[in-house]
Amino acid sequence: MATVAAKREISSAENDELSREAKRPKADDKNGGEGGNESEWENVLSTFTTCSVLSDSAREKIMFVHGKIADHDAVVVLEKTPIREDSLAELFRGSKLRLELRNDIYSSYRLQAPPHLNEIKTTVVCPATEKHVKKYKRQESFLVEETGEDYRSITLPYIQEQSLSLQWVYNILEKKAEADKIVHDDADPEVGFVLLPDLKWDQKQVDDLYLIAIVRQKDIKSLRDLSSEHLPLLQNVFQRGKEAILQRYNLPASKLRVYLHYQPSYYHLHVHFTKLGYDAPGCGVERAHLLSDVIQNLQTDPQFYKSRTLHFPLRADDGLLRRFKDAGRL
Fold it and tell me: According to the UniProt record, where is the region Disordered (predicted)?
């Protein structure tokens, strides 16, 4: 709804923070290879049938839908794109308005924007596993306290039992997918990484900038594996990542939030770069760890994250939560 003049009060919608870390599509001969010719428009959802709405957020204007594509389970993430300042003139000039309410100086309209200014960012996870479906389903969360011993005896065995593929990560590192999206590529096997936009960012404005740095070392699962020997890697990601963002997007380090998640959404070390002021999913204190703090902690104690007690949220049907309950830790 478009409102002419100022609204007297803007009510706040529900304050749920939903996980939006959708898996990137698999590489094939149409997607992301250096010589690939991805079609500009295609409708992979023409055969999609809806099973259920897993969750939605009116505040974030996002919906997670479970359904089928052919015989495969799929999760579709639908998200309204932000209004861009550089499109305002065309939006005002080319839109149709239908009056809904007029009262003194206040008028409310339904605004029908030109189609290309009214896009819905869509992420498709297919084939989706049961874990994907559960991940996007709205449910109660619990804060878990994990000691270093808890990690070794409960969390690590659970991680090792999981079967979520990291092939999409390796496709990016090997430039078999999304090669055209890479912002920075450091090929060093020890301190190197690939920096590219996260799927949650449509790259049309920097206000919701969101990039991911994926390290080249394949044996670092998460924060728990880090020690002082990884300081050169972390410092390189921190410094080179900020420099690359400044050069490409003219956004200085003082406007960036750089952090790791624990627990991460996938167990290959990666670092999040988001614009300060953007309420990015998972940037809250219960899950995000600033990379600058991580570096300082490891400089103070080389084994800091091997023994440190960490807290993180888990949803009600998460298998790891059941393990903590079975162990009497919750």
Answer: 1-41
Higher per-residue confidence, 114 vs 213:
213
Condensed to tens digits (0 to 9), the pLDDT of residues 273-316 reads: 999 999 888 899 999 999 999 999 999 999 999 999 999 999 88
Tokens linked to 196? 């590219």
- Spatial distance between the Cα atoms of 315 and 62, rounded to a whole number of angstroms: 19
Tokens of 129: 């596993």
**Per-residue confidence (pLDDT) for residue 40, from 0 to 100:** 61
Secondary structure letter of residue 144 according to DSSP: E
Single out the catalytic residue among 66, 230, 268, 270. Answer: 270
**Strand bridging mode 141-146 / 72-80:** unpaired
Per the structure block, which two tokens stand in for 223? 């924060």
Q: What is the largest CA-CA distance in the chain?
A: 67
3-state secondary structure of 226: coil
d(CA 147, CA 150): 5
- Tell me, what amino acid is at 278? Y
Q: For Cα atoms 77, 82, 87, give the angle at the middle one, nearest 5 degrees.
A: 135
DSSP string, 62-130: EEEEEEEETTEEEEEEEEEPPPPGGGHHHHHHH-EEEEEEEETTEEEEEEE--GGGS-EEEEEE-SPPH
- Note whether 256 and 280 are within 8 A (CB): no
The answer to whether 289 is a known catalytic residue is no
Gap between the Cα atoms of 160 and 312, Å rounded? 19
